[in-house]
Amino acid sequence: MTGPRIKKYFLEYSLKKAMIDEFLANYFYTAGYAGVDLYKTPTGYRIVIYAEYPGRIIGRRGSVIKKLTHILQRHFGLENPNITVSLVPNPDLNARVVAFRIVRALEKGIRYRRVALGMLRRIMAAGAIGAEIVISGKLRSERAKYEKLRAGKIYKAGDQVEYLVDRAVAKALLARGVYGGGDYS
């Protein structure tokens, strides 16, 4: 039988992990941030950050890691955080990495349809079963629209969605307005 303290512990742990994940996603979106794993150890916390470009997270001589350690101690209350940065095994199959790539390309000024079709081809070439990219916002005119591009087999409902589908949402801040808020799965 689980008591209220155990439930509270897991809720606080999950909330802390979600807050750290959101902070790192905003802070390292140019580094191809893919996710974080948080482990509680007897000596403190072990944090594994997955990224497309780990060197951008580590920084010169570990300067960014030292700053990040200080931020995690001060703002998130983690005692003695041990940070490890790891390379994503296949970045083209990680939804968050692909979403941030699309955002960076849109912010550079590349046309949205060209970016989406190129990413769709890369995802399918990497070995995905299927992919869907949704880009929404002021695409061509003052009126907001959305563009949905699909390839392969896409699962929308059922038990397969839990373990097969990877989703990410990213927002691009452009001069015309905000692109994003859609699903990149």
Which tags fit this structure?
single chain, alpha+beta, 25% strand
Q: Beta fraction of the residues?
A: 15-25%
Low-pLDDT stretches: none
The average pLDDT value, as a whole number, equals 86
What is the helix tally?
Answer: 6
H/E element order:
HEEHHEHHEEHEE
So what's the overall shape? Answer: globular
Total strands: the figure is 7
**Structural class label:** alpha+beta
Radius of gyration from the CA trace?
A: 19 Å
Describe the structure.
The protein is an alpha+beta fold and 185 residues long. The chain has 6 helices and 7 strands. The protein has helices spanning 4-27, 54-58, 63-76, 95-108, 112-125, 160-164; strands at residues 33-41, 44-51, 81-87, 130-137, 145-152, 171-173, 178-180. Strands 1-2-3 form a 3-stranded mixed sheet. A two-stranded antiparallel ribbon has the order 4-5. The chain has a two-stranded antiparallel ribbon with strand order 6-7. It is globular. The termini are far apart. The relative contact order is 0.12. The model has no long low-confidence stretch (mean pLDDT 86).
Topology (elements, then pairings):
Layout: H1 4-27, E1 33-41, E2 44-51, H2 54-58, H3 63-76, E3 81-87, H4 95-108, H5 112-125, E4 130-137, E5 145-152, H6 160-164, E6 171-173, E7 178-180
Parallel strand pairs: 2-3
Antiparallel strand pairs: 1-2, 4-5, 6-7
Helix pairs in contact: 4-5
What can be said about this structure in brief?
By secondary structure, this protein is α+β, with helices and mostly antiparallel strands.
